[in-house]
Amino acid sequence: MPVDQHTHGAPAQPAEILREQGLRVTAPRLAVLDAVAAVPHADADAVLRHARAALPTVSVQAVYDVLHALTDAGILRRIEPAGHPARYERRVGDNHHHVVCRTCGAVDDVDCAVGEAPCLTPSSTSGFTVETAEVTYWGLCPSCRDLPAD
After folding, report:
1. For residue range 27-80, what is the model confidence (pLDDT) as tens digits?
2. Residue 112 annotated as binding site
3. What is the pTM of this model?
């Protein structure tokens, strides 16, 4: 899986990222890549809104198709915090985790404490070869934590 150079070293151009993964460079793909870079951990609706600001004619289906294709190509990472819509980010391939606010749903990155995959060792693998472990920390973001109690 490629590491997104957007967050690791010199930023790669979106068209270059697509070509490196053997994908055609299209306006919807560029708009979606830009949206996810601008709004990390965005859900599909937020990606659509941002993409339409740059490309007003892009359809809902096109955005979903692009999100799926870019995730399959390893250009985007899809995370699915329990009880929340899927979110997308360009930070891929570095074994990081997430912290999610129980109140507002804000998501942020948390670097892996172990440094390599998988971060957790299961008590039994049932014969599987474990490649990754997704860790989600739950709590309150600073804004929600500082709200006065009712």
Report:
1. 999 999 999 999 999 999 999 999 999 999 999 999 999 999 999 999 999 999
2. no
3. 0.80
Instruction: Give the per-residue pLDDT at 4.
Output: 43
Burial 61-90 (b: 16+ CB within 10 A, else e): ebbeebbebbeebebbbebebeeeeebbbb
Q: Does 141 belong to an annotated binding site?
A: yes
Q: Is 119 annotated as a binding residue?
A: no
Give the tokens for residue 97.
């985790």
Domains and CATH numbers, the chain: 14-79 (1.10.10.10), 95-150 (3.30.1490)
